[in-house]
Amino acid sequence: MNPDALRGHMDALLLSVLEREPLHGYAIIEALLERSGGALSVPTGTVYPALRRLERIGYLSSEWATVGGRKRRTYRLTDSGRKQLEGERSAWQEFAAVIGGVLRAEAAEVSAVRAANG
């Protein structure tokens, strides 16, 4: 998947992955990959700065935990983060409906023109 397509949606993706349970950074990356059917292979250089930013603004909290014998920072969604995720989901649904409508209309027009010329 084109990394530019993710621009503006990373926060929602990270918040969504953390909705179920607290996870450390690498587990978040794995969850994104798994939940996307392998389409979202997001580099650590994108994920970790976003997690720190989301923590600074209060959507996530973190704590150190030992996972698999290693100390890792584990992130959890805050109440504020849950509210933000709800807003992100609504905004995404609206965005997808608008863009989908435009694309469907274009596809229908192209099909009609081809059929008329055809």
Summarize this structure briefly:
The protein contains five helices and three strands.
Radius of gyration: 19 Å
Terminal CA distance reads 35 Å
Tell me the quaternary state: single chain
Total helical segments = 5
The biggest sheet amounts to:
3 strands, antiparallel
Indicate the structural class: alpha+beta
pLDDT averaged residue by residue: 89
State the total count of DSSP E strands. Answer: 3
Can you tell me the overall shape? elongated
Q: Would you list the SSEs in sequence order as H and E?
A: HHEHHEEH
* Strand adjacency order, main sheet: 1-3-2
Query: What percent of the residues sit in helical stretches (DSSP H or I)?
Result: 55-70%
Proportion of residues in β-strands: 15-25%
Unreliable spans are: none
What does this structure look like?
With 118 residues, the chain is an alpha+beta fold. It is built from 5 helices and 3 strands, in the order ααβααββα. It has a 3-stranded antiparallel beta sheet.
